[in-house]
Amino acid sequence: MEPLSLHFVHEQVGARFILVGGREVVAGYGDVGAEYGAARDAVALHDASYREILRITGEDRASFLHGMVTQEVKNLPVGSAAYAAFITVKGAMVGDARILKREGDLILDMEPGLGAKVREFLDKYLISEDAELHDGTPESGWLRLLGPRTAQVLAAVLGGPFEALPAQASRQAVVAGQDVWLLGTALPGGVSGVDVLVPRAGLEAVWTALAQAGAAHGLKPLGFDALELLRVEAGVPRYGQDMVDTTIPLEANLTHAISYNKGCYIGQEVIARATFRGRMNRQLAGLLLGNGDVDVAPGTELRRGEKKVGWVTSVVRSPVKGQRVALGYVHRESLEPGTELTLAEGPGTATVAALPFTAG
Fold first, then answer.
1. Where does residue 82 rank: exposed (0-12), middle (13-18), buried (19+ CB within 10 A)?
2. Residue 262 has pLDDT above 80, yes or no
């Protein structure tokens, strides 16, 4: 297990810890509803330093990575970020990453437990290019501000007006004496914020400064459980939970991770054929589960009549919908919102719903 750098800071305020991808994560601070509410209506601060970072340097770094991912890299403006997938020649996912293009390097922000797998994949194809792969996780960590008062917190901590950052745009700043990168983020459904890339040695100083500056704006620390609520309501799949090494990106609705104008990359032919053919055989969809007593776990089979038509991947109790909701893969013939499916285990039902989940 890889412990959080700020373990004792969180422990002092009653945090509960879990493991995700072999790394320690704060599950919550005792009131998931309050944490979730702060992210929706005020501002919340999440310690995302459990995420793994791969840094790529060298003159050929952009052209090398460009040929390895589904997204545009060579023409990505410096200071911008983009979401991309790594896929095999057969189109199946190796992993995913947010790529931040800086003047001297590329930063790959990945799920916990994914760093070694992605690095091995890249290493296999790195032959004569002037590009070097570095484990950036020991060097830096992410802190995440979410909520409509994010700009006020950053203005307070920076000592001046803070111009809102669009999603995937970045700028440099100094917080608590630390040189940081600020990167705009947004989830479908209206939750936006800023991720702060901090030197690992300065995480405690920056966390403390943000928490203190946010006190006047209703800031609460945000655990992984509340973050999962927001993610699932937004319909965003997470690698290791909703995506695995047999998933094709189009099945997981990752069209925003794919550039169709960039030229060749590994697995491109499979993506091109699938796009030309149209709808995939199965696709990630929303599912309404109601408030029944039947426990629905990830992996639960979905049926329509006697026929298996899919399975569940993530389940949460959604404040927006006032019931349990899920993400899951559903056969294309059963994707119409309102389609009622049955659960293979128990008498429960699941109703297909559009993503993201919205009130009403």
1. buried
2. yes
